[in-house]
Amino acid sequence: VQLQASGGGLVQAGGSLRLSCGASGRPFGSYAVGWFRQAPGKEREFVAAISWNGRVTSYADSVKGRFTISRDNAKNTVYLQMNTLGPEDTAVYYCAARQSTLVHTTTRDYQYWGQGTLVTVSS
């Protein structure tokens, strides 16, 4: 499956963005999906994940209550709604997928990766 992340951009602190992860190549409905981010000079870190059917989600503590992950399997798309953004959220955001009935929160669990989309939050 091929993944395409989009929706990044420049936003002021306190603002919102919605990222999208579009999939092609195979039906997306059997894939667990995660969002990760990587800031300059830092390791890639987990942000949020969602199960294949959307019923189970997981979030990093740093984004709980501000970010929401969701999916529309009919559109082969997973979303990451990001609210109350702060400069600490500045990073390249990546989506990843693997065939699984579980939720996965580590980079090594994922087989497929998108190219990343840059989110910059100005103070």
Query: Mean pLDDT score, rounded?
Result: 96
Portion of residues within helices:
under 10%
**What proportion strand?**
over 45%
Rg over CA atoms? 13 Å
Low-confidence spans: none
What does this structure look like?
With 123 residues, this protein is mainly beta. The chain has strands at 2-6, 9-12, 17-24, 31-38, 45-50, 57-59, 67-72, 77-82, 91-99, 112-113, 117-122. The strands form two sheets. Strands 2, 4, 5, 6, 9, 10 and 11 form a seven-stranded mixed β-sheet that branches. It has a four-stranded antiparallel β-sheet with strand order 1-3-8-7, with no helix packed on it. The radius of gyration is 13 Å and the shape is globular.
Salient structural properties:
single chain, 123 residues, mainly beta, four-stranded antiparallel beta sheet
Question: Topology of this structure?
Answer:
Layout: E1 2-6, E2 9-12, E3 17-24, E4 31-38, E5 45-50, E6 57-59, E7 67-72, E8 77-82, E9 91-99, E10 112-113, E11 117-122
Parallel strand pairs: 2-11
Antiparallel strand pairs: 1-3, 3-8, 4-5, 4-9, 5-6, 7-8, 9-10, 9-11
Give a brief rundown of this model.
Helix content is 0%, strand content 51%. The chain is mainly beta. The protein is globular and about 40 Å long.
